Amino acid sequence: MTDAKTYLYNTLSKTVEEFVPNEPGKVAMYTCGPTVYHFAHIGNLRSYIMEDVLEKYLRFVGYDVKRVMNITDVGHLTSDGDTGEDKMLAGAKREHKSVMDIARYYTDAFMEDCRKLSIKKPDVVEPATNCIDDFIHMIEVLLEKGYAYVAGDNVYFDTSRLENYYVLSAQKEEELQVGVREDVDEDTNKRNKTDFVLWFTRSKFDNQELKWDSPWGVGYPGWHIECSSISMKHLGERMDIHCGGVDNIFPHHTNEIAQSEAYIGHKWCNYWFHINHLNTKSGKMSKSKGEFLTVSLLEEKGYNPMVYRMFCLLSHYRKPLEFSWEALDNVAAAYDKLIKRLKNLTEEGDVDKDGVAEFEKKFAETLGDDINTSSAITVLYDMLKSDLSDATKRQLTAHFDEVLSLELTKAFEEAEVDAELAAYVEQMIEERKLAKKEKNFTRADEIREELAAKGIVLKDTREGTLWSLEKA
Ligand code: AMP
Ligand code: ZN
């Protein structure tokens, strides 16, 4: 454990605070997982990239992190509140498949996107549909304690029982988000406008595909209860950090706090880490409007997913970030240049222990300042510019990349492969020269063909034989 201090902006206090976990040296961290009704767009993935950096930074400075993420495969309605259709059902209808088929397919696709972006898989990944009994238990306790009520066959959380329902979001009723404010089908069962559904049986959708038995009738859970229940199942009653995109602050996280603290009877999570949105010029990124920007689309257009990761790291997570192809091109050029620079590092020189310690400290302090990733990348460049030995630079690059995860060490492997290839080709050219001298033209031609098969082109010039790699 280093003695570096960590400061994080906490949505709960709306200030940057020193991070002190409940248990020294340990961090219990929860992430709202994807709703697996479609591919993730690169905006969703911005959130997961920045959460990944937070987790890896905490590990870098020595914390033992346990990270849990749910997979939302039921209950998330198109409004984020209690109106609209279950997104999973909409996805199943769109593709004429079953909800579980859709869930499986898009969960795998999400994991694949994460792999491409070097996002570490959380220690626990739990689909909501695995935990229905846990949700039912929690709802039963909320009813027993008088925090919930049954009306019109649905179970609702009674927000009027709380002293400060808006502890996280500082919202006023008149500022409520559209889906909740307009409550299109004005739910007359609710005692208070901000009450929310814990268990649906009277959904206006009779065709909800996945339903379970419950003490209140056959039905399905609300979205918010998933995260409260799954996080407590794996992390206990006291959590250190809860993450998500800013759109989750209200109503999702506000409702999570309400029901979790009502259930356990004390404060639940100390730090709330929210990532601001990735937008396009025309506004918030969406899966239904405009170009559907996915990792696969970036690849189809010839971008290495690492370029998108670097694009995200070059901005602070609390600022909105505007996506454009021009901006991505600039980062692609910078990434290319960085990799070339790293390829030129040799293994020469001794590792300078003091130099390593100094730059590691700088790197940790920079990230410890509310996860300032763009400054952390500046520390990387400063280090490469310094007069440390190449061997020291290689070691530091590898260590920084444990957090940045930009596949920087691949450059060293590629440089090695490049060097091996060069040695091999030079040796073949030498052999060909000898064969020609001995008038063994068959062997000389064989060598040329052997190299051509490997994509290596020879060119005989007055200065000797030059070689190049055929362009793919
Ligand atoms: P969902 O799959 O809709 O449940 O969202 C997955 C995650 O992506 C959540 O943490 C959202 O808050 C986050 N998110 C949604 N839209 C964006 C965006 N445009 N930029 C960054 N994060 C987003
Ligand atoms: Zn959640």
List the helices and strands and how they pair.
Blueprint: E1 7-10, E2 15-18, E3 26-31, H1 42-60, E4 64-71, H2 87-95, H3 99-116, E5 124-127, H4 132-144, E6 148-151, E7 154-157, H5 178-182, E8 196-200, E9 220-221, H6 223-235, E10 239-245, H7 249-264, E11 269-275, E12 278-280, E13 283-284, H8 295-300, H9 305-313, E14 321-322, H10 325-343, H11 353-368, H12 373-385, H13 390-404, H14 410-437, H15 441-453, E15 456-461, E16 464-469
Parallel strand pairs: 3-4, 3-10, 4-5, 10-11, 12-14
Antiparallel strand pairs: 1-2, 6-7, 7-8, 8-9, 12-13, 15-16
Helix pairs in contact: 1-9, 2-3, 4-6, 6-7, 9-10, 10-14, 11-12, 11-13, 12-13, 14-15
The structure holds adenosine monophosphate and zinc ion.
Describe the protein.
There is one protein chain. This protein is α/β, with parallel strands linked by helices and 472 residues long. Helices cover 45% and strands 16% of the residues. It is built from 15 helices and 16 strands. The strands form 5 sheets. Strands 5-4-3-10-11 form a 5-stranded parallel beta sheet, with helices on both faces. A 4-stranded antiparallel beta sheet has the order 6-7-8-9. Helix 7 (249-264) links the parallel strand 10 and strand 11. Helix 12 runs antiparallel to helix 13 (390-404). The radius of gyration is 27 Å and the shape is elongated. Residues 32, 34-35, 43-44, 46-47, 72, 244-245, 247-248, 275, 277-278, 284-285 line the site of adenosine monophosphate.
